[in-house]
Amino acid sequence: MKPYGTLTPTGKLRRLHALATAALAGYDLDAPEITFHAFETNLLYRVTTTRGERFMLRLAVPGWRSPEDLRSEAMWLQALARDTDVRAPRIMLARSGEAVLPLELPGASGTWHATLMSWVPGRLLGHYLTDHNLAKMGALFAALHAHAASWTPPAGFTTRRFEHWLSRGEANLITEGERPAPGAALHEQVSALPARAREVLERMHRHVEAAYAAIDRSGLSACMATE
Fold first, then answer.
1. Which of 58, 74, 142, 150 supports an S-S bond with 99, CB 3.0-4.6 Å?
2. Residue 87: which residues within 8 A CB-CB, separation 6 or more?
3. Which residues fall within 8 angstroms of residue 7, CB to CB, at 6 or more apart?
4. What is the pLDDT of residues 187-214, one digit of tens each?
């Protein structure tokens, strides 16, 4: 068997399809059909049952998020479904009662974590930034903030916070003072950025840090986002 890292993108998807099939075996679904959807930050599959039910299966790439982060995301989405009318994806529990299933497959490189969610139909509104849609987005954000202000996260919820332009504890390789020593592979990659690209990133860094410095960081919610 070829090492995972040597496979082509198509070869990786072919191998990971078996991982998706293994994940769905942990749920009580009626003859689910799996269709590849996207492989961006995570690997996503559309799932349809013979009864017409539709779901999204997400396989979180190893190392991208910790199991604690993924379980916390599930807790948050479950709370939104229970406490609000926000049309967020609903978490579907596995037969074991778990919201997140760790999976390993020979030749699939590391531990992947599966989460099955309800399918929420819609379209990418980034292409439809009308006044009406922006007002609806503002109302949605307000509802999320109102819920967060009154919700007490359960035990085991992540303590990480989104209070930096890098949200997952990565090394900051863009701004001065935090770059690795010359000769390191990452240093060479950053150094290869065009001057204009680096200037834009450094300006973004200054603006974001200034915005965070102007607010009370003690009021920030834990780092939570879905992909």
1. 74
2. 120
3. 15
4. 455 667 788 887 888 888 888 888 878 8
